[in-house]
């Protein structure tokens, strides 16, 4: 009787499919865990595989730190996957894309990658070559962008902030020197911008324009040392200003933000909130992104 009962046992899962899927998705907390779960059954692979490509990090393995288990894609691997699965698959699943400037990116490759990942909400694009603005304009869901200023200028005397790529942007980090072009940086033309960051000197004129922009909730300067911001900065008396001392590799910080929201933007927001609540001395403006003792 026992044998008969075993033979008659249904092969289908006992949990309702929606509930079973929720359980497996909750269990897929790490990329390595995802790979193991995908071996359980075909239906589980169908559920879990899109999560594996939610964050794509393109770089050279030899130059990056440990990325909390996140797989690193090389150019050849990513191009092969796009060719095999088709751009439509990646458009439907990729939400965070990191293109490391330390990796050689041929000019004809970048537009193809951006096209295949054009529904991302978060893009780190550290490259300075090629006419990529048209490809960036196709990224209609983009909310967070880190990019070189020279890429945005693209040989023009000013950045056209009315372009489609800025339409839904809330967070913008500019890489490289903005000093000589600062007079043309009219950020008030980005309709939904609330957070802005720089990793090079910001001249007084631009600082004053940032202070006058009431829409901004957070203004960040990314430096190596606290004294990178001197006492003459006009932003020092602005409650929205934070100097982030980068004691964590910027690539690891980006990955943590993409996967769990724990990046320097989150640290800056929390610091500003605590300072306004009186938990932090008003004159203090600098924090280390990996040190959260200031919010205790």
Task: Give an overview in words.
This protein is α/β, with parallel strands linked by helices and 296 residues long. It has 2 domains: 14-52; 53-295. 35% of the residues lie in helices and 14% in strands. The protein is built from 12 helices and 10 strands. It has helices spanning 2-8, 17-27, 31-37, 42-52, 75-85, 87-93, 109-116, 133-137, 149-153, 204-212, 250-260, 264-276; strands spanning 55-58, 72-73, 96-99, 122-125, 144-148, 171-175, 195-198, 218-223, 241-245, 286-288. It has a 10-stranded parallel beta sheet. The longest helix is centred in the C-terminal third of the chain and has 13 residues, at 264-276.
Summarize this, please?
This protein has 296 residues and is α/β, with parallel strands linked by helices.
* Secondary-structure content class: alpha/beta
Average pLDDT level: 81
How many β-strand stretches? 10
Low-confidence stretches: 1-9, 292-296
- Distance, first to last CA: 63 Å
Number of domains: 2
Biggest beta sheet attributes: 10 strands, parallel
The largest beta-sheet arranges its strands as: 2-1-3-4-5-6-7-8-9-10
Shape: globular
SSE arrangement, N to C: HHHHEEHHEHEHEHEEHEEHHE
Instruction: Tell me the fraction of residues in β-strands, as a range.
Output: 5-15%
Count of helix runs: 12
CA-based gyration radius:
22 Å
Notable traits:
alpha/beta; 10 strands; disordered N terminus; 14% strand
Note the topology.
Blueprint: H1 2-8, H2 17-27, H3 31-37, H4 42-52, E1 55-58, E2 72-73, H5 75-85, H6 87-93, E3 96-99, H7 109-116, E4 122-125, H8 133-137, E5 144-148, H9 149-153, E6 171-175, E7 195-198, H10 204-212, E8 218-223, E9 241-245, H11 250-260, H12 264-276, E10 286-288
Parallel strand pairs: 1-2, 1-3, 3-4, 4-5, 5-6, 6-7, 7-8, 8-9, 9-10
């Amino acid at each position: 009787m026992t044998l008969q009962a075993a033979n008659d046992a249904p092969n289908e899962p006992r949990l309702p499919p929606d509930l079973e899927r929720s359980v497996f998705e909750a269990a897929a907390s790490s990329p390595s865990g995802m790979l193991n779960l995908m071996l359980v059954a075909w239906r589980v692979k169908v559920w879990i595989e899109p999560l594996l490509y939610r964050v794509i990090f393109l770089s050279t393995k030899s130059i990056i730190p440990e990325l909390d288990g996140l797989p690193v894609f090389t150019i050849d691997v990513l191009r092969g996957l796009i060719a095999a699965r088709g751009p439509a698959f990646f458009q439907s699943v990729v939400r965070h894309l990191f293109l490391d400037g330390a990796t050689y990116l041929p000019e004809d490759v970048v537009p193809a990658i951006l096209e295949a990942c054009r529904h991302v909400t978060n893009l780190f694009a550290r490259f300075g070559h090629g006419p990529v603005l048209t490809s960036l304009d196709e990224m209609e869901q983009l909310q967070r962008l880190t990019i070189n200023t020279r890429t945005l200028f693209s040989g023009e005397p000013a950045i056209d902030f009315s372009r489609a790529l800025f339409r839904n942007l809330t967070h913008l980090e500019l890489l490289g020197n903005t000093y000589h072009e600062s007079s043309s940086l009219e950020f008030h033309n980005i309709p939904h911008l609330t957070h802005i960051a720089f990793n090079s000197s910001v001249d007084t004129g631009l600082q004053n324009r940032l202070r006058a922009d009431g829409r901004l909730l957070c203004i960040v300067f990314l430096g190596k040392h606290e004294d990178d911001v001197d006492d003459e900065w006009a932003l020092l008396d602005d409650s929205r200003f934070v100097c982030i001392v980068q004691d964590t590799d910027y690539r690891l910080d980006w990955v943590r933000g993409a996967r769990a929201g724990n990046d320097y933007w989150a640290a800056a927001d929390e610091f500003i909130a605590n300072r306004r609540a009186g938990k932090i001395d008003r004159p203090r403006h600098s924090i280390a992104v990996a040190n959260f003792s200031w919010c205790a």
